[in-house]
Amino acid sequence: MTKFDRLVGFMIKPWVIMLFILLMFLSFFYLDKPIAYFFHDLDLGNKLTFLNLIANLGSEKFYIGPMLILALVFRYIYREKTWEIRTWFLLLSVLFPTIICLILKISLGRARPELLFSDNLYGLFGFKIKSIYWSLPSGHTTNIMGFIFGLCALLPRYCYALIISGLILASSRILLTNHYVTDVLVASYLALLEVSFLLWYLRRNKLLIYSKKYI
Questions:
Q1: Averaged pLDDT, 47-71
Q2: So where are the chain's domains?
């Protein structure tokens, strides 16, 4: 059992799930707005411009396109089956959570912090097709953490360092008030569950091949 397996096993324990739901409840009603106002007043986007560059790393264009091209290269040019499968896995680690994230965004209709600052709108408004109501879960966080958890599955020896790096990147969405704390945490947790499901499926079908030096 790898570090990533142990992490997933811990995070799906019933008492951990209940604590996480409680934390999300408390954050939604008591923490999200004060934290958003705090960082809005700091205006870090203009003071620390590098945060905008970090936040942009969550865009799907940095993951889906390059991973697709790399997978095709391993399939048709270099013909490395092992690395092709690993690359498809990394692609799906981003694509699968991203699709679910979009469905949840549209269905929940949570107003972004921008609407809190401009119109004092906060909360869930149900089905919405306007992106200004697509705050939960965070799409950039989903992309980042989906990729990070995919790497954790392939390189479990570096699991904790990868996760810390991913969370630091994802936190830029909070610092720049693009998202609430709840948006980022929910996106991270869902990405963990979705990637672990993909990993289970590939293992079940004996498709994912590890390099022993990374386990």
A1: 90
A2: 3-214
